């Protein structure tokens, strides 16, 4: 994908692009084609992104994984009407990480993102540059999505009630907007920076040769040290920063990034499938050395938490206080309502939030705006923490039967949302406001 640095124009519009090779079709995008450019920003420098909405309905942009002021966060009430513009301007003060951007208008996020509005945004710092991780041609930003395509290869979006419940799955897996994606590589270590940009699909990322690989980062940046893994479960909204070593793969051989089955996968088809084909086409010597230490993740102490909030998540069986109708996706028995303040947090406080899906039967990737958190524990279901959860997170998967506790410090004042990142659940109302002041 095209790369821009610090400043630029993003225009949400209908464009012609080919998801299936050779089949031009109508999709949405922020520049010439589907999706948007990969944006590289330097921590501490001025970022200015001019957004123009050329759709025929309201939209906006949320910077998922950037700690920006509330008025720049793309809250669902901060809309840009059809034909309007808004300049998102901010200066970041955070660790190097990989974030992504997408629309956030309530009840329209799922559609706009699915039809093509999303992109990758990468935060760079001197500290990360000093690690000499693979860069340039050896660093691959990958947006993984699934689409339902019509006969002309155009994405279609009309979820049924079942889709809203089980998750809206497409049968065509695309990477950076292309189905059947192929990437040629040399016999070197590559950095794969992956966002699950799907509406509802969870991937269990692995390599077709079953080789182990390194997980070096997740949502909020680098892990303290590299974790050797053979699979990484990635739910919608989550990111994985991987190092894959192709140096032992014979030239002329293909290796696939694939999704393995996993416990609970039955709801989304339960099959393993390929995502991206790597063709090793060139022998090269590799100077890369894995650094012994990567990011800074000092544990937030539970003793410093001033409050614990408990949220039942899932389908509301009864309307509570007349708010949700029976059968809607809720948090704490409530569905999203405009700027109603659901939770008030004191600026600077550290809190423990618990998401309780012990009675539910759907997976819920829970996402908080404005902060990164650490995952304290997971009780029930998988009963364990994962390698991705050794770093800073902004989205955590809560599978059926599970209760997951997270800890976060709230340092940005203003009104923000937290929600399920299954976009059909979010659009169904599984999103609440919290106000920090
Ligand atoms: Cu990526 Cu509020 O979302
Ligand atoms: Cu977000
Ligand atoms: Cu959900």
From TrEMBL:
<keyword id="KW-0479">Metal-binding</keyword>
<dbReference type="GO" id="GO:0016491">
    <property type="term" value="F:oxidoreductase activity"/>
</dbReference>
<dbReference type="InterPro" id="IPR011707">
    <property type="entry name" value="Cu-oxidase-like_N"/>
</dbReference>
<feature type="domain" description="Plastocyanin-like">
    <location>
        <begin position="330"/>
        <end position="436"/>
    </location>
</feature>
<dbReference type="Pfam" id="PF07732">
    <property type="entry name" value="Cu-oxidase_3"/>
</dbReference>
<dbReference type="InterPro" id="IPR011706">
    <property type="entry name" value="Cu-oxidase_C"/>
</dbReference>
<protein>
    <submittedName>
        <fullName>Bilirubin oxidase</fullName>
    </submittedName>
</protein>
<dbReference type="InterPro" id="IPR008972">
    <property type="entry name" value="Cupredoxin"/>
</dbReference>
<dbReference type="InterPro" id="IPR033138">
    <property type="entry name" value="Cu_oxidase_CS"/>
</dbReference>
<feature type="domain" description="Plastocyanin-like">
    <location>
        <begin position="21"/>
        <end position="127"/>
    </location>
</feature>
<dbReference type="InterPro" id="IPR002355">
    <property type="entry name" value="Cu_oxidase_Cu_BS"/>
</dbReference>
<dbReference type="InterPro" id="IPR045087">
    <property type="entry name" value="Cu-oxidase_fam"/>
</dbReference>
<dbReference type="Pfam" id="PF07731">
    <property type="entry name" value="Cu-oxidase_2"/>
</dbReference>
<keyword id="KW-0560">Oxidoreductase</keyword>
<dbReference type="GO" id="GO:0005507">
    <property type="term" value="F:copper ion binding"/>
</dbReference>
């Amino acid at each position: 994908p095209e790369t821009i640095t610090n400043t630029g124009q993003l225009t949400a519009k209908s464009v012609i692009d080919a998801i299936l090779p050779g089949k031009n079709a109508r999709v949405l995008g922020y520049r010439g084609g589907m999706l948007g450019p990969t944006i590289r920003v330097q921590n501490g420098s001025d970022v200015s992104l001019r957004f123009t909405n050329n759709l025929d309905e309201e939209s906006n942009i949320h910077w998922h994984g950037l700690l920006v002021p509330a008025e720049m966060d793309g809250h669902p009430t901060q809309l840009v009407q059809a034909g309007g513009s808004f300049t998102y301007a901010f200066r970041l003060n955070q660790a190097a990480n990989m974030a992504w951007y997408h629309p956030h208008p309530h009840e329209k996020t799922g559609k706009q993102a699915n039809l093509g509005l999303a992109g990758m945004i990468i935060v760079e710092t001197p500290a990360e540059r000093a690690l000499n991780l693979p860069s340039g041609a050896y660093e691959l930003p990958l947006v993984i999505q699934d689409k339902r395509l019509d006969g002309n290869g155009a994405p279609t979006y009309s979820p049924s009630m079942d889709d809203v419940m089980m998750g809206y799955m497409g049968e065509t897996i695309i990477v950076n907007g292309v189905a059947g994606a192929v990437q040629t590589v040399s016999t070197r270590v590559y950095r794969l920076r992956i966002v699950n940009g799907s509406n509802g699909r969870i991937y269990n990322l692995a390599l077709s040769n079953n080789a182990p690989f390194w997980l070096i980062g997740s949502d909020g940046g680098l892990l303290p040290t590299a974790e050797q893994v053979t699979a990484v479960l990635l739910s919608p909204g989550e990111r994985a920063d991987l190092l894959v070593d192709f140096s032992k793969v014979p030239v002329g051989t293909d290796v696939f990034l694939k999704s393995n089955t996993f416990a609970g996968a039955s709801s989304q088809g339960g099959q393993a499938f390929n995502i991206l084909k790597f063709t090793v086409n060139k022998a090269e010597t590799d100077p890369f050395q894995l650094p012994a230490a990567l990011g800074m993740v000092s544990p937030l102490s539970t003793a410093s938490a001033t409050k614990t909030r408990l949220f039942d998540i899932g389908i509301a069986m009864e309307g509570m206080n007349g708010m949700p109708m029976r059968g809607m996706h809720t948090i704490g028995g409530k569905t999203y309502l405009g700027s109603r303040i659901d939770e008030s947090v004191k600026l600077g406080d550290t809190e423990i939030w618990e998401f309780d899906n012990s009675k539910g039967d759907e997976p819920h990737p829970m996402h908080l705006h404005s902060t990164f958190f650490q995952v304290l524990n997971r009780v029930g279901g998988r009963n364990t923490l994962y390698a991705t959860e050794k770093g800073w997170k902004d989205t955590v998967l809560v599978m059926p039967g599970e209760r997951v506790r997270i800890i976060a410090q709230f340092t940005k004042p203003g009104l923000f949302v937290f929600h399920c990142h299954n976009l059909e659940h979010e659009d169904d109302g599984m999103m609440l406001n919290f106000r920090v002041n």
